[in-house]
Design brief:
Layout: H1 2-8, E1 14-19, H2 24-40, E2 45-50, H3 55-60, E3 68-73, E4 76-82, H4 87-95
Parallel strand pairs: 1-2
Antiparallel strand pairs: 1-3, 3-4
Length: 98
C-alpha cells in the first residue's frame, strides 16, 4: 500500500485504470488510455493496475466493476467512474487538475 501512496501523492493528476486481462470491457480502454497519455504528455500520469494481481488494493478502494477509472491529485481522490469512458472526456477531466 505504501507504493500506492507514492503513485498518487504527486502534484500532477494521476489516472488509474483498474482492469483485468480477462475483462473484455477493460481491453476496450487500452487504445483510449494510450490516446489520453499521448495527449497529456508529462502533465498527467496514466497507470493501469490489474485488479487480480493487486487484490488488497482493489478491495481497499472497493473496486467492484471493471474497468474502474480514478483520478488522484496530491494523494486525494478527485473523480471516480466505473465503465468505459471516451478519450476526450478523460482528457478534459485531467486538464481540470493540471
Amino acid at each position: 500500500m505504501s507504493k500506492f501512496g507514492e503513485l498518487v501523492d504527486v502534484e500532477i493528476p494521476v489516472l488509474l485504470d483498474f482492469y483485468t486481462e480477462r475483462n473484455e470491457t477493460s481491453k476496450i480502454m487500452n487504445p483510449i488510455l494510450r490516446e489520453v497519455a499521448a495527449a497529456l504528455g508529462n502533465t498527467a500520469k496514466v497507470i493501469k493496475i490489474d485488479a487480480e494481481k493487486n487484490p488488497q488494493l482493489a478491495e481497499a478502494l472497493r473496486i467492484k466493476d471493471l474497468p474502474t477509472l480514478i483520478i488522484y491529485k496530491a494523494g486525494e481522490m478527485k473523480w471516480r467512474q466505473s465503465g468505459n469512458q471516451d478519450a476526450q472526456t478523460l482528457i478534459e477531466l485531467l486538464k481540470e487538475y493540471v
